[in-house]
Amino acid sequence: xxDWSAIEALPSSTxxxxxxxxxxxxxxxxxxxxxxxxxxxxxxxxxxxxxxxAALAKAxxxxxxxxxxxxxxxxxxxxxxxxxxTAERGEGKADSVARARQYHARMRALIDAxxxxxLGEIRSVLHVGIGGSALGPHLLVDALxxxxxxYDVAIVSNVDGIAxxxxxxxxxxxxxxxxxxxxxxxTTETMLNANSAIQWMTEHNVEDPYGKVIxxxxxxxxxxxxGVDETRVLPFSEGVGGRYSLWSSIGFPAAIALxxxxxxxxxxxxxxxxxxxxxxxxxxxxxALAAFADLYYTQVRHAETRxxxxxDERLRLLPSYLQxxxxxxxxxxxxxxxxxxxxxxxxxxxxxxxxDAQHAVFQLLHQxxxxxxxxxxxxxxQYDTLAEDHHRQxxxxxxxxxxxxxxxxxxxxxxxxxxxxxPSSTxxLDTLDARTLGALxxxxxxxxxxxxxxxxxxxFDQFGVELGKEMxxxxxxxxxxxxxxxxxxxxxxxxxxGL
Length: 499
Ligand code: F6P
Hints:
Layout lengths: L4 H4 L6 H7 L3 H5 E4 L2 E4 L7 H13 L2 H9 L23 H22 L8 E5 L6 H10 L7 E5 L4 H10 L5 E6 L6 H16 L9 E5 L2 H7 L6 E3 L16 H7 L1 H20 L6 H15 L4 E7 L6 H13 L17 E2 L2 E2 L8 H6 L6 E6 L10 H18 L16 E6 L4 H22 L10 H11 L7 H9 L7
Parallel strand pairs: 3-4, 3-5, 5-6, 6-7, 8-9, 8-10, 8-11, 11-12
Antiparallel strand pairs: 1-2, 2-12
Helix pairs in contact: 7-11, 11-12, 12-17, 13-17, 14-17
Bound molecules: 6-O-phosphono-beta-D-fructofuranose.
6-O-phosphono-beta-D-fructofuranose (F6P) binds next to loops.
């Protein structure tokens, strides 16, 4: 495609050469917004590269598509829907924003009622949901709910009964609120977990188990049909995609456990990032610059993966959250017009927690044969209260790893040599509060969007998850047209009754 040619023709200097050549490199490739310092100076982006990507963005009408998304147009073309997650934080089409506000008010009123004892004594929240209906709330509660958490929260996603039994062991059924989170209210894993949780409550003589159920869903009728009282159904809009839904009623466990004020701060932080994304020129636009770096490595340097490492225990779930956000959104092979994309799309997102990962997987990052753009996410403010200098060690390690990846080291012994010139970016948060976390997550959402627009794909559908679901359902019903290998596995596991 001709509009990529300028990008593909960019000269390939090393990172150290780029630093030597441009004394103002930090000015060009760092920026501060919404309590986050972004540093892409240790990537191969240059002024020319950014100009070339900005030209591509213009050719792909990024600004128009961004405005169309915020304006409520049906940018999710394959599902003929608007994309409404920004409306949850007050940034979007007026009627979408008004509806989101109504839904939030309903959620807040229910939380107030629960706190006032309307459902009896509640000490714990058992949230069942999967994918986007679990990863977001889990990240929020884990990151922000370390102290002054008002309720014990368990987020159970896996259909493996062990996950649910672990939660049963922790909680008293008499004082547990069962929260069923499912956009469609049909997802097999979630409905099975919900049924088993009801059974657990019943077996323990909870008087009215269904009276302790809250539903978070875009299909309220199905929730009512299942047995949830209409007053305890918290809806959200169809236009809010599962992996973009933590801002909606899907964020209920965070809102109840952390308190409504924190939930609102989360939304405000995200709204601040929305405005930054909408109003900043591309050369100063954090999601756009991050996406340019992503695309430089996937398209020009053929990187197949990217690896975010959270140098903060509170963000240990961030890499898994980003895996769904990025891979489910941009793991596509056709354009919005149904044509083959003809180039690589999303990198495989993996990652982990620093410093643990340094002693496990960083060997490959420093000396392996794969090019892996690394992303360090760290927080300046210390949270632990230990007398020893843990936080100082944590941050210094993050920064030293980035420097080492870039610098490398030559030694006489090839086994002890490091090639260097390995890219990384750093996101340094002033503090980890609800507002900054909201901004951080919104940054990632918009970065995914920019990647999608420049690749010409729809980031908001996920048809790739359907076939496996259909085949599992067919097998469960004793049918399915399975190959001999799969039939053999089914028989070996003793599941062949109906086949
Ligand atoms: O299988 C993929 C998926 O549809 C995700 O996109 C979604 O977040 C998850 O399943 C859960 O779906 P639901 O919220 O409808 O239960």
